[in-house]
Amino acid sequence: MEKSYYYFNIIFIIILTTFLLIANSKTLKPEKPCKQLVLYYHDILFNVTNSANATSANVSNPLNNVLGDFNFGMLVVFDDPITRDQNLMSTPVARAQGFYLYNMKSKYNAWFAYTLVFNSSEYCGTLNIMGADIIEQKTRDLSIVGGTGDFFMARGVVTFSTDAVEGLGYFPISFYLLLIIINFSIVESSNKIRAHRPCKTLIFYFHDILYNGENAKNATSAIVGAPAWGNLTKLAGQNNFGDLIVFDDPITLDNNIHSNPVGRAQGFYFMITKKYLLHGSINFAGADPLMNKTRDISVIGGTGDFFMTRGIATIMTDSFEGEVYFRLRVDIKLYDYTHRARAPCKEMVFFFHDIVYNGENYKNATSAIIGAPEWGNRTIMSSPNNFGDMIVFDDPITLDNNLHSPPIGRAQGMYFYDQKDTFSSWLGFSFVFNNTDYKGSLNFAGHDPLMNKTRDISVIGGTGDFFMTRGIATLSTDAFEGSVYFRLRVHVKLYECWKLL
């Protein structure tokens, strides 16, 4: 019998906003936004002297003076207070937890993936946000790709504006939140879906064995980034704050690590305070407050038999042994689930070109290794199969496969290699457009099994001309030259196309 797998991709995300909409040529009833908020988040970067007040830390080598003077490759993990006004000392109403990375050589530009975590008398739950932050623009839109609790499966857009900057040490960002929670009984699906009654429920266990310098044979994960006070074989102090771990963990149907795996959990996590005839992937995003008995994160998309699925995954720590091993029980509830793809409402084909910095090609490089396992370095891919390498990129997008054609946008984000026994990666990135044909952004996330001729990842949101869009992107490797250059053909098929009324 042919093997089939679930791929679990964990990342951390946030964003908010919505308006009056049309989807797939069907009009939703005009609705006013159910909530409008202006919030501020305050980021204080660790600088060696401010450990008591710091709320974020650089966990990678920014490669300054090598790839420009704009922090290209700097990846910052944060746990920032959210307030209702500009005062850092005001009572927080939430925490922003996740990461941002700088991804351009020629100017300051960032890519965000994080979660707003609310736990107050007014709100309880999370909102997940993701997207490119074009810092030089006065206002910037990012995508809200999911939520939990009071924000159950919320989607929309959040608008950023930088309210103040004090060097690299401190900045507050204000964001205007217009949030609408779509009632799934009136969206595009012909099948009526009652909110909070799942159409499919699954329970799995995944097992994580962290590399500690001595267990290379059995390890399924490795620390690839750490704050200044940490290292790559032992979790950092202060509750492991800032550690970045890449994993390729076995998934089982029971809590026995020696049971036959039904799939692989592949992705990454930050430390911040089968015999089923199913094929495809499920993508997750959210904050995981480890001290809680159960925790909800968002299911933000899927491929194959989980085509464009959405829902909630409830996580429970089933077992752990020190810092090296833990087992999670994952209870997945899908509320927006169909096996059949409709005809897409929009199709596009693009090419993006990635040139990895190798220590000698500063002028042409569009990406760089910013995190590597303990045995790796920043200019040569790790062995075996590049496992643990994390790459930040700012790649040109063209309409044909010629690297020298005029770019119509930029592909900005990151990917990392997540398997020891074959070439495989996980992608989180945005297409940022600003031309006569398209304006706005498309956000992507998913597992990329590189040895397959074609691979599907999820389109999980967008802004501008691609407001709140969802769909599938089919990747194929169009060319590669060793480990320095590759070109991807990206066939984008959108199945949710929204327009502002």
Automatic annotation (TrEMBL):
**GO biological-process terms attached to the record:** phenylpropanoid biosynthetic process
- Pfam assignment, any one: Dirigent
GO cellular-component terms in the record?
apoplast
Transmembrane: is it a keyword of this entry?
yes
Which InterPro entries does this chain map to?
Answer: Allene_oxi_cyc_Dirigent, Dirigent
User: What residue intervals traverse the membrane?
Assistant: 6-23, 168-187
UniProt KW Transmembrane helix keyword = yes
Q: Which top-level group of life is the source organism from?
A: Eukaryota
Alphabetical keyword list: Apoplast, Membrane, Secreted, Transmembrane, Transmembrane helix
Subcellular location, principal: secreted
Where in the cell? Secreted, Extracellular space, Apoplast
Functional note: Dirigent proteins impart stereoselectivity on the phenoxy radical-coupling reaction, yielding optically active lignans from two molecules of coniferyl alcohol in the biosynthesis of lignans, flavonolignans, and alkaloids and thus plays a central role in plant secondary metabolism.
Q: How does it assemble?
A: Homodimer.
Tell me its family: Belongs to the plant dirigent protein family.
What protein name applies here? Dirigent protein
